[in-house]
Description:
Elements: H1 2-47, H2 53-64, H3 71-83, H4 87-98, H5 105-117, H6 121-129, H7 138-150, H8 154-166, H9 172-185, H10 188-201, H11 206-218, H12 231-247, H13 251-264, H14 270-281
Helix pairs in contact: 2-3, 3-4, 4-5, 5-6, 6-7, 7-8, 7-9, 9-10, 9-11, 10-11, 11-12, 12-13, 13-14
Amino acid sequence: MRHTFLVPLCLTGALALSACGESDNASVERAIQDVNAVDETNLSDVMLTVADPNEAVKYFQRTLENNQDRIDLQRGLALSFVRAKRYTEAVPAWQKVTKNKDSTDADLVDLADAQIRGGDWDGAEKTLDSIPPTHETYKRYRLEAMISDSNQEWSKADSFYETAVGLTTRPAGVLNNWGYSKLSRGDYAEAERLFGEAIRNDSSLFTAKNNIVLARGAQRKYSLPVIPMVQTERAQLLHTMALSAIKQGDTETGKALLREAIDTHPQHFEAAVRSLRALENS
């Protein structure tokens, strides 16, 4: 009798072990998938930040071959095209993202951004007009301000710039853009003020430093503003101010500023030397 019960008992044990084996295999497979998902997310983050933009494009193109409907990979490809300054390819990539069922209004804003970078201002305006007014973000209003600038709708531009400034903790870039808008309109004093605000928010923003010198030069204020600058920057800003003075017809002042720029620069300042020689020879 013992033997009659032994076979069923062994079969039961074998089935149990088989079931356990299948369960363990499934658990391991799920764990591997989870790890791969985490690794892929980390790699995507790296590709969108520190990786070479063109290498990032290749990575997302390869990954999308077997995952064509994944919107995170579609966004990664579109962002990589923008980072690589390949705007002709970035626009259709963003258009594909916006057609995905999981797309958001933020994707439309990114499409408009790519269109502006690619020079399609009319297309960007249409894209922004298609976004509900309830989508209120810094990037949306910054782009709206740029579109209004391009249309010379100054009141709208000022309103959008002001709103954008209030929606970010890092307003230096948009303040610089706003200042340049005022500079292009001939409102030099207001432009100078806005460039100064931009520099106070980001003392490393050399573009704003150069622009504030242009705004001062347009007012025939030929002294450098009191702003943070290293020696090389000081020389470059003196050069900018010299060219501004020459453009205004104040040639002797321009020559003096060029000499000061040459003396200030810690190395040979070829651009300033060339400008001074051209003036003296003429």
